[in-house]
Structures are given as structure tokens and as C-alpha cells.
Amino acid sequence: MSDRWWFCLKHMAVEPDEGCPNKDRMGPYETREAAANALKTAADRNQDWKREDQDWDGDD
After folding, report:
1. What is the 3-state secondary structure (H, E, C) of 19-34?
2. Pair 31, 41: CB distance under 8 Å
3. SS3 2
4. Positive or negative CA dihedral for 13, 19, 25, 31?
5. Helix (H) or strand (E) holding 6
6. Could you tell me which residues are beta bridge partners of residue 6?
7. Cα separation of 25 and 18, whole Å?
8. How many angstroms separate the CA atoms of 18 and 4, rounded?
9. Residue 43 Cα distances to 6, 38, 48, angstroms
10. Which domain of life is it from (predicted)?
11. What's the pTM value of the predicted model, to 2 decimals?
């Protein structure tokens, strides 16, 4: 069993290390569940970044 998991953007499915080329995948993730949630995780991080960017006042 693989220690790392990937989310394949081509097949919209979770894969072990042996799978599609990395250019078509997100990861690696430590668990199958984390890989299955890859798109939600990315969307949440993008939303967080967008909020932080809006809050930035440029005084750094």
C-alpha cells in the first residue's frame, strides 16, 4: 500500500504513487481522504488568500 496519495485532475480520482504523470495530479497527500478533498482544500486556500489580499494595506 502506498504512503502517499494524489488527486488526478484528468480522471478526477484519487490515485496511489503509481498513477498518472504528476503534471496531471495534485499532491502528494498523506492520506487517501486528504487527496479526495484536494479540490476543496485548494478552493479554501484560494478563498483565504483572497481575503488576506483584500485586507492587505500595502504598508509592509
Report:
1. CCCHHHEEEEECCHHH
2. no
3. coil
4. positive
5. strand 5-8
6. 15
7. 12
8. 10
9. 17, 9, 9
10. Bacteria
11. 0.78
pLDDT digits (tens, 9 = 90+) for 12-58: 999 999 999 999 999 999 999 999 999 999 999 999 998 887 777 66
- Of 36, 2, 33, 34, the C-alpha closest to 19 is 2
How far from 20 is each of 15, 41, 45, 54, CA to CA, in Å? 8, 21, 24, 37
**Helix or strand run (H / E) with residue 14:** strand 13-16
Q: Residue 39 is placed in which grid cell? A: 479540490
Return d(Cα 22, Cα 3) in angstroms, integer. Answer: 16
Residues 8, 27: Cα–Cα separation, whole Å:
9
